[in-house]
Design a protein that fits this description.
By secondary structure, the chain is mainly alpha-helical. The chain contains 2 helices and no strands.
Length: about 100
């Protein structure tokens, strides 16, 4: 569970970005770890000249993007609810 409370609406004011917290959530951590793993496997594939490892790295990279989107849509990568998180005008962006 996150140490930050979920916001009911977009943050406003001069320090609006600071109100979002550190940005660490389950989706962020999962994508970061999978992305680093994909990069490490890809780098090793180049070092040992292995096309098979290159393919594995590519699959991991695609899996990283898919998992990130799925987790975000499940609500594990957001800081606020979807209805309030629309940046369509100045007010929703926190600009008054």
């Amino acid at each position: 569970m996150s140490k930050h409370e979920r916001l009911t609406e977009p943050p406003t004011g001069p320090h609006a970005v600071e109100d979002l917290g550190e940005g660490y959530n389950p989706a962020w951590w999962t994508v970061a770890v999978l992305g680093i793993l994909a990069g490490a496997v890809g780098a090793w594939a180049v070092v040992v000249l292995s096309p098979a490892l290159g393919i594995v790295s590519g699959v991991l990279a695609v899996l990283t993007a898919v998992v990130g989107v799925i987790m975000t849509r499940m609500g594990l990568g957001t800081y606020a609810n979807a209805s309030a998180d629309t940046a369509a005008d100045s007010e929703s962006l926190g600009i008054k």
